[in-house]
Amino acid sequence: MSTYLPTLKQLQYLVALREYGHFGRAAEACFVTQSTLSAGLRELESLIGITLVERTRRVVRFTPLGEKITDKAIRVLREAEELSGMARAAGKPLSGELRMGVIPTIAPFLLPRILPRIRNDWPELKLYLREETSRSACESLHHGQVDCVLLALPYACGDVEAAALFEDRLFVAFPHNERTDLPELVSADAIDESRLLLLEDGHCLKDHALAACNRPELRAEAAMLGTSLHTLVQMVDNGLGVTLLPEMALKAGILDGTAIEARPLDADNPARRIALVWRKGSPREKDFQLLADVLRDVSPVHAPQRAVA
């Protein structure tokens, strides 16, 4: 067998470059300098005798063969990760390194409850966190950059297993005393579409909120301005409109110090489902199920669900 084989590190650089389309951002994702990443890719191209990437000042463009080799590299890295996972799974449960993706509408509200419990119950686990939108988190999962993702369902994340954790109900948030006529349960029909503030595209909570309201015109009329839930809260507190907030954010105190009132949304499906997802067939499934048990126990909202979705 030839001793001149690409290294896993070189393949990681190649996959990261295609994902980010930028040498600097790819290097940052790989925790190396841009010069290190560039040198690694040049070595890879020299090793196999093929140009994989066309470099210009403005554009990073993969050659047709470079695209095919990158697709193969993703599969090789996934197999290598599963090999490592098999070894970890044979050792102590929830020990060693575990990389978890978390979406922005969950991370600031649930992680403060999770992390102290994990440190206490599983001191040998080194949990590395990566906050990304749902789409990016699922891509990271299938590229082997994370082992599991804390996600809100429904969301099409590909060929994954999912452990359902709990339901996170949606609330209508509005300036105090602005709508004194609203009932304790706010119907979606009572929401003024011209004043509805939602997260910008890329956040699955926007889609969950619109689906729960079941009013197609909201997608066209709503002002999708917020980059985060905290930004939306500030807008509402300044009288710019109303928004929809998940219960976990309310339990975490996102409205503290504001003059905002929040009431439950009255709808057929007024909640998103929080779940832990991982690649189907992962050798660390038992670890993920143990982690899911911890997440259920620290749930800030509704009674835990123990079924696997």
UniProtKB/TrEMBL annotation:
Name under which the protein is recorded: Hydrogen peroxide-inducible genes activator
One annotated Gene Ontology cellular component of this protein: protein-DNA complex
Database matches in Gene3D superfamilies: Periplasmic binding protein-like II, Winged helix-like DNA-binding domain superfamily/Winged helix DNA-binding domain
Keywords: DNA-binding, Transcription, Transcription regulation
UniProt family annotation: Belongs to the LysR transcriptional regulatory family.
Domain HTH lysR-type: 6-63
PANTHER family attached to this UniProt entry: TRANSCRIPTIONAL DUAL REGULATOR HCAR-RELATED, TRANSCRIPTIONAL REGULATOR OF OXIDATIVE STRESS OXYR
InterPro entries in the cross-refs: LysR_HTH_N, LysR_subst-bd, WH-like_DNA-bd_sf, WH_DNA-bd_sf
GO molecular function: DNA binding; DNA-binding transcription factor activity
Keyword DNA-binding included in the entry's annotation: yes
Superkingdom: Bacteria
Record Pfam families: HTH_1 (PF00126), LysR_substrate (PF03466)
